[in-house]
Amino acid sequence: MKLAMIGFGQAGGKVLDRFLEYDREQGSEIVRAAVAVNTAKADLMGLENIPEENRVLIGQARVKGHGVGADNELGAEVAEEDIDEVQSAIDNIPVHEVDAFLIIAGLGGGTGSGGGPVLAKHLKRIYTEPVYALGILPGSEEGGIYTLNAARSFQTFVRETDNLLVFDNDNWRQSGESVESGYAEINREIVERFGILFGAGEIREGGEVAESVVDSSEVINTLACGGVSTVGYASETLDRERKGGLLSKLTGEAEEEVDSTSTTNRITSLVRKGTLGRLTLPCEVGGTERALLVLAGPPKYLNRKGIERGRKWVEDETGSMEVRGGDYPRSRSEKVASVVLLSGVTNVPRIKELQQVAVEAQENIDDLRDASAENLDQLVNDNDDELEPLF
Which residues sit opposite 237 in a β-bridge? Predict the structure, then answer.
């Protein structure tokens, strides 16, 4: 699947930067075009893989390149004001060569959480290609303002995009990790999962052709139900045993011993682990509207029987009759990996928690406003009593 990716804000830019590195390492050619947008000049300067001409600084008239300070209302305002500057960068994207747009943004900060949905609405108005977002939820330890931003941004992204894929930092940070190393590891996890999902079906010249092809249309159809999506992942490192004599070992031309039964069992086990293990957004998988599974690895370790068994198991587990599946041959890989996309999930405790926080915060804001109005009225009345009339 070929994507035009826009990293909006600090987190979005860093994940996009990592995507480009992954693309180069794997030769997957997922990222057809990359644009980074930010209100902080320093964040844009810190990117390593995004061309300088594709880095867009917005809000200079308002914040002078210093960021919006976790104010996502201000982030939305400057995105509205400077949307033409963002569009100028997007105009250089060969849109006829991409299958969809993907906006990547942290939902807890100010620039990405506020400006990302503004860009999504803009793109949907102009282009016919689907517009998706990859939203990154802040950890609960990051503070109340980030949680409130995430609650607001989440709702707006769901409304303005064709599907919101979510990665919850709260489920991934390890205790004792530094912030820098923790987020670097999280970004690697994000790109590994979504890289396999979007890379499936992209056949390079001379590359292997999948037995059960997963192309961009199947990803699009799975995400077409809208709403919120989560991704599961599981992998197993291969213990490759070669047969043959000393000469074959020296030349590396020995054939690998591959047992079809163990291959089938490995695939079905990985599908189960990927679905019931640590999802990018923890949820109850029952009631999922649509699903897609992708098995990646050396072709000899992939087979149709295992994929069909895995697909049938996902159908039973989710209750969905729209479960697609296929393989993604990667000869150089030393492991077999399963990626499971669950689209249109509804029973998500973290989202319910965010929504409750938003409701309580709004009530507190309303109470503060009422209290401020009462105090102002009282102050005016007290002053009226104390002041002598002029005439």
Answer: 335
**Contact criterion met (CB below 8 Å) for 9 and 79:** no
60 is in an annotated binding site: no
Give strand pairing partners of 38: 57
CB atoms closer than 10 angstroms to residue 363: 10
Question: What is the pLDDT at residue 144?
Answer: 79
* Distance set, CA 153 to CA 117, 159, 280, 343, 358 (Å): 7, 10, 18, 19, 11
54 is in an annotated binding site: no
pTM of the model: 0.87
Q: Is 46 annotated as a binding residue?
A: no
13 is in an annotated binding site: yes
Q: Are 274 and 339 in contact (CB under 8 A)?
A: yes
Q: Apex CA 113: angle with CA 72 and CA 188, to 5°?
A: 140
Q: Is 169 assigned to a binding site?
A: yes
Locate the domains of the chain by residue range.
Answer: 3-199, 226-343
- Is 273 annotated in some ligand binding site? no
- pLDDT tens-digit readout, 161-207: 999 999 998 887 665 555 566 788 899 999 999 999 998 876 554 55
Q: What is the CA radius of gyration of the chain?
A: 24
210 assigned ligand-binding residue = no
Domain 3-199 has CATH 3.40.50.1970: no
Q: Is 10 annotated as a binding residue?
A: yes
* 92 assigned to a ligand binding site: no
378 is in an annotated binding site: no
pLDDT of residue 389: 45
**Residue at 383: amino acid letter:** N
Q: What band does 40 get if pLDDT is binned at 50, 70 and 90?
A: very high
Evaluate whether 86 touches 56 at the Cβ level (below 8 Å). yes
Contact present, 294 and 338 (Cβ < 8 Å): yes
Which CATH number among 1.10.10.10, 3.40.50.1220, 3.30.1330.20, 3.40.50.300 corresponds to the domain 226-343? 3.30.1330.20
Which of 300, 322, 298, 296 lies closest to 311, judged by CA?
322
Is 226 assigned to a binding site? no
